[in-house]
Amino acid sequence: MDRPRGKAGLVVAHVLLPLPLLWRGTRRARLLSLLQDKLILADSAQEAPMDAKDRQIIRELQKDGRLTNQELAERVNLSPSPCLRRVRNLEAEGVITGYTALVDQKAYGLPITVFVRVRLDRHGQDLIKGFEDAVARIDQILDCFLLAGGDDYLLRVIVDSLEAYEDFMRRRLHAIPGIASIDTSFAYGVVKQTRVFPLAG
């Protein structure tokens, strides 16, 4: 049997400050104040929590996003109608954010993966926003993570050659204002790569 769900409320937080700054000396109070100013509460209602069946559905779709509803229902031991209803609820609530194709990076022509750690020279709100906006516009950067620790960001970059990476560094990354240091690590092999989440709870 499928379980009922209430209409999901959303709590949206748009944060531009790197998390490690929250622990840096006398800036703590100011940064906490700025962080609080950036919290936008759209609705105080809470979503119904996912159950084990929802997570099972998600894991199966992560393994194969082309499953038909009938095939998915059989894998998670549901009848088709409740299964489809759960999938649509997960999509409507923003848990399932989309469906995509997994592509062989080397076959596509971009065999080189580079991890780049970036530290900013200061942490004003305008500088941080400028950096993050610039990163969002650069196609070679696939992921950008905020870090706790000495560095502020970790970037995952893919390129077709060492020459292309040098060009990326000179023309794109170094052109962004406010960068204090850049540390680069090249990946020369993949041991594990998966998009399937582990079991939770």
Short description, anyone?
This protein is an alpha+beta fold and 201 residues long. Helices cover 35% and strands 17% of the residues.
* Mean pLDDT figure: 83
Question: What is the first-to-last residue Cα distance?
Answer: 21 Å
Instruction: Give the DSSP E fraction (strand runs of 2 or more residues).
Output: 15-25%
- Looking at the overall shape, the CATH architecture of the domain at 105-187 is 2-Layer Sandwich
Instruction: Characterize the main sheet.
Output: 4 strands, antiparallel
The fourth-level CATH homologous superfamily of the domain at 105-187 is: Lrp/AsnC effector binding domain/regulation of amino acid metabolism (RAM) domain
Number of helices: 7
Q: What are the secondary-structure elements, in order, as H or E?
A: EHEHHHHEHEEHE
Low-confidence stretches: 3-35, 38-46
User: How are strands sequenced across the largest beta sheet?
Assistant: 4-5-3-6
Give an overview in words:
This protein has 201 residues and is α+β, with helices and mostly antiparallel strands. Among the domains are: 50-100, Orthogonal Bundle (Arc Repressor Mutant, subunit A), CATH 1.10.10; 105-187, Alpha-Beta Plaits. It is built from 7 helices and 6 strands; from the N terminus they run βαβααααβαββαβ. The chain has helices spanning 28-37, 52-63, 69-76, 80-92, 105-108, 125-136, 162-173, and strands spanning 12-13, 39-40, 112-120, 141-146, 153-159, 179-187. A hairpin with a 6-residue loop joins β4 and β5 (153-159). α2 (52-63) crosses α3 and α3 (69-76) packs across α4. It is elongated and about 55 Å long. The two termini are 21 Å apart.
